Amino acid sequence: MAITVVVPTFNEGPNVAELVRRLDEALGAMPGSCVLFVDDSRDDTPSVIERVAAGQAARGGIPVRMIHREVADGGLSGAVVAGLRSVETEWAVVMDGDLQHPPELAPVLATRGRDAGLDVVVASRYIGGGDAGGLDGYWRRAVSTVSALLARSMFPLRLRNVTDPLTGFFAVRVGAIDLDTLRPRGFKILLEVLARGKRVLAVGEEPFVFGERYAGRSKATLRMGLRYLEQLASLRFGRMSRFAIIGGMGAVWNVLILWALTAFGMHYVIAAVIAAVVTMSVNFALQERFVFRDLRAEGRHGFWSRLAHSFAFNGTEAAVRLPVLWWIVEVTGMWPVLVQAVTLVVAFLLRFVFHAQVVYRPRRTQPPLGGALSSSQPGDGLLGASSADKRVQ
Ligand code: GDD
Ligand code: MN
Question: Which residues form the Glycosyltransferase 2-like domain (predicted)?
């Protein structure tokens, strides 16, 4: 088996020689393999790559190729797609050029993919033996965890076997993906590959330890974080948008019922309790039908258990939100309306993640290590409720 290792680089000169040295060793048993740099650097990195490539050719090591782009179209993700377009082997491995991804794992990912009949094998920081240690700072780790949780909640079926949809390290059977449908921008190319295409890909995972950079600095910026939100929006937020619409309608029912009951002379506290119970029930029914329909059979909970979990969450949330609001306003002295808006948004996200990750969580179909279960399940309804419904018999 031969593979192409696609390495996007932006000003990574000091890392090139060491990366190629370790890849050369790791790919020794895979004749025909090569390393392909897709370089957008504005410094001397291209000449470093050329020098290393010449060195490899001279000593008969694995070949090193380079695509240098004058216009860094689509940034990191655009570079990966450009690289994948010119891959000639059946399998490619995408990895960073700063040695945070262990080169020794590249052949392991591709071999596992071929042997298990998968389309994509993700190197995950979040399953047994994996570690995100190299992410600098508490803040970036938290952002990474939350972003991954959101992505997995929006695409629970497509990402059912993926704990780390935002990693930059994965093997892919190039023929399995339609590069023309992708809209690469920013850093999160793997999510694009898994969530965008028409076909649901068969995905497996291997744990890995995200190491420290060998040299240089990270190119991740706040702007890339915003790009990620843009990307989620262009993926139509998966099933989150339908969940939001139902939640919004729920707020309207709630107020209408409260208004009607008090208009008939009922005490407002009793009316509020009735409004809450009715709203929760209606929302639950709509959710079952329009948001999580395809997940009901895939999940771990039966109807009554889902109902109980959903009610327990909503009840707790309603009971906790007021004291939290009061506490934040007292401690920070911020404008209560703003605090209320923020707590409502946070509560909405929590409710969505809880429903997708607990109430309707699909069972994994791929063991993280070894094994060859195939996963052919419907997608996550990128095309909206109606087409999602069609796919579910
Ligand atoms: N060609 C090209 N163009 N390469 C780029 C660009 C670009 O605009 N921006 C960054 N790169 C390259 C870097 O040179 C490096 O090889 C790789 O992409 C990853 O960039 P880093 O700057 O090292 O990113 P990071 O370590 O902060 O983030 C990594 O981990 C994240 C997970 O937390 C990346 O793998 C991300 O994709 C991943 O989401
Ligand atoms: Mn890095």
Answer: 4-176
